[in-house]
Amino acid sequence: MAFRSQPSLEVLLPELRHWFDSELGQELLAAEREQIDRVLANLHGMHLLQISVDNRLTLFDQSPVHHPFMLCSELALGAGTNVLVGDHHDLPLQSDVVDVVLLHHVLDFATSPHQVLREAARVLRPGGHLLVIGFNPVSYWGLYRLLRRKDRERVPWRGHFISHRRLQDWLALLELTELKSWSGYFWLPFASAIWRRRSRLMAGWSKRSPARTGAFLMMLARKDVAGMTPITPVWRRRLIRLPLAEPTARGHTRECR
After folding, report:
1. Among 12, 55, 27, which residue's Cα sits nearest to residue 214?
2. How far is 15 from 25, CA to CA, in rounded Å?
3. What are the E-state strand segments in the chain?
4. φ and ψ of 36, to 5 deg
5. If you write DSSP's letter for every residue of 167-228 in order, what string do you get?
6. Number of H helices, E strands in the chain
7. Nearest 5°: phi and psi at 122?
8. How far apart are alpha carbons 125 and 144 in whole angstroms?
């Protein structure tokens, strides 16, 4: 089964920003930040790459990595020195140079999510870690998306909502080992805070369920490659702060189940 066609991220960006600025979007984001901070605090290295659907978000504040930076599809006014402009389907980075890659909902709204994951695995060094955050289809949010078909043209319901099983299959193909997966934010997707609190019994049941039924799904994986781990010479590490771009001719792939 092919993924539903998506507009480019540039087209969706205004709507995505508007949704993340809403009360519901802010609650979800706060729950995600809490989990992201706990994970990143224990991941070390030289370089961390964040790829998010909203380039205003900085999600690596608690990371001890020396050089965190983010990828943006276009250069925005006021962008800092830690911003790299490029296409998330074809990263302008050398292979095996990044210690931590953070994918924040980018697979949900990518034209080719498997290609984005492939690129993330390519730039990740052996032994490096990948943290994926996306909407969970096995949740109240996934059920709402399934039943409310008229909302499927709106954000966030037009997202892919990739299942844990499919992500597992993709990780295995890319020589990535899943270390842990979990979900969070168990409230129903009502725009009104009053209605969300009225559903607290259902939210409590979902939170106590042994299954991963939260609105977002997180997966932490490690790149395990047979053989020796390449080590960059000390003199090169001192001269090159950011991995350099490498010309490529890779095409995008089309996903199907």
Report:
1. 27
2. 12
3. 47-52, 67-72, 83-85, 98-104, 124-135, 176-184, 216-223
4. -60, -45
5. HHHHHHHTTEEEEEEEEE--S---SSHHHHHHTHHHHHHHHHSSS--SSEEEEEEEE--SSP
6. 9, 7
7. -65, -45
8. 38
**What pTM, to 2 d.p., does this model score?**
0.85
Residue partners of 251: CB distance under 8 A and separation at least 6: none
Measured CA to CA, the distance from residue 157 to residue 159 in angstroms comes to 5
Top CATH class of 9-239 equals alpha beta
- As a whole number of angstroms, the distance between CA 43 and CA 157 comes to 31
Burial 95-111 (b: 16+ CB within 10 A, else e): bbbbbbbbbbbbbbbbb
Residue 75: strand, helix, or coil: coil
Torsions phi, psi for 242 (to 5 deg)? -120, 135
- Cα 78 to the center of its chain, rounded Å: 23
- For the chain, what's the residue count? 257
Peptide bond into 156 cis (omega under 30): yes
Per-domain residue ranges for the chain? 9-239
Ordered per-residue pLDDT tens for the chain, 257 residues = 467 778 888 889 899 999 999 999 999 999 999 999 999 999 999 999 999 998 889 999 999 999 999 998 776 655 567 889 899 999 999 999 999 999 999 999 999 999 999 999 999 999 999 999 999 999 999 999 999 878 888 999 999 999 999 999 999 999 999 999 999 999 999 989 898 888 888 888 888 887 889 999 999 999 997 654 544 444 334 333 455 455 444 444 444 44
